[in-house]
Design goal:
Mean pLDDT of chain A: 92
Largest interface: A-B, 28 and 22 residues
Strand content of chain B: over 45%
Structural class of chain A: mainly beta
Number of strands of chain A: 11
Order of helices and strands of chain B: EEEEEEEEEEEE
Mean pLDDT of chain B: 93
Number of strands of chain B: 12
Radius of gyration of chain A: 13 Å
Largest sheet of chain B: 6 strands, mixed
Radius of gyration of chain B: 13 Å
Strand content of chain A: over 45%
Oligomer: heterodimer
Helix content of chain A: under 10%
Distance between the termini of chain B: 41 Å
Helix content of chain B: under 10%
Largest sheet of chain A: 7 strands, mixed
Number of helices of chain B: 0
Low-confidence stretches of chain B: none
């Protein structure tokens, strides 16, 4: 299956720890989007990356959150010093081109902050 | 800014009933419109899409028509099944960076 892969699927962290979420796009896709789904809410855009570049980070909190998509390897969403309000499902999606209509979603990482 | 509004759920129907989930949007320009479905514990799957006014997207018995005059993209299915129970998200894609803007989701529960 060459779908979008995310790991881990479930992540538990204590307040103040770091959370690192990984996303491997579909084969041949070089565009990655990260979305966050808070409990009982829809998905909210966080950041859009191409290989080695952040294109749009308008949905990212200004502090503690960062994202990267290196030339080799998966895209990483990093949350430093997690707080309980960071508990959510984090989804990544990939597409083949900047204006491609269809984004393909991974299964998500469910982060729980104790 | 751009936004999507869906009817609130949960929607509970009996098997073989007719389904409508309302979706309206606000956007500048000419967005593409989508319906995604999320089954329990899974990620989102694209259900159908429409890229311009009067286009009809369809898949697995579901349909939605892009209505520019009413800024709507209502999801319909003539006869639902228990296996259709899921959360349905309406979304639009802006023309700039391609990010998706989602509605809040509508939970559908179909009872046998």
């Amino acid at each position: 299956n060459a779908g979008v892969m995310q790991n881990p699927r479930h992540l538990v962290r204590r307040r103040g720890q770091e959370a690192r979420l990984r996303c491997s796009p579909m084969k041949g896709h070089s565009h990655v989007y990260w979305y966050r789904q808070l409990p009982e809410e829809g998905l909210k855009f966080m950041v859009y990356l191409q290989k080695e570049n952040i294109i749009d980070e308008s949905g990212m909190p200004k502090e503690r959150f960062s994202a990267e998509f290196p030339k080799e390897g998966p895209s990483i969403l990093r949350i430093q010093q997690v707080v309980r309000g960071d508990s959510a499902a984090y989804f990544c999606a990939s597409c083949a081109a900047e204006r491609a209509d269809t984004q393909y979603f991974g299964p998500g990482t469910r982060l729980t902050v104790l | 800014g751009d936004s999507v509004t869906q009817m609130e759920g949960p929607v509970t129907l009996s098997e073989e009933a007719f389904l409508t989930i309302n979706c309206t949007y606000t956007a500048t320009g000419y967005p593409s419109l989508f319906w995604y479905v999320q089954y329990p514990g899974e990620g989102l799957q694209l259900l159908l899409k429409a890229t311009k006014a009067d286009d009809k997207g369809s898949n697995k018995g579901f349909e939605a028509t892009y209505r520019k005059e009413t800024t709507s993209f209502h999801l319909e299915k003539g006869s639902v099944q228990v296996s259709d129970s899921a959360v349905y998200f309406c979304a639009l894609k802006t023309s700039n960076t391609g990010k998706l803007i989602f509605g809040q989701g509508t939970t559908l529960q179909v009872k046998p």
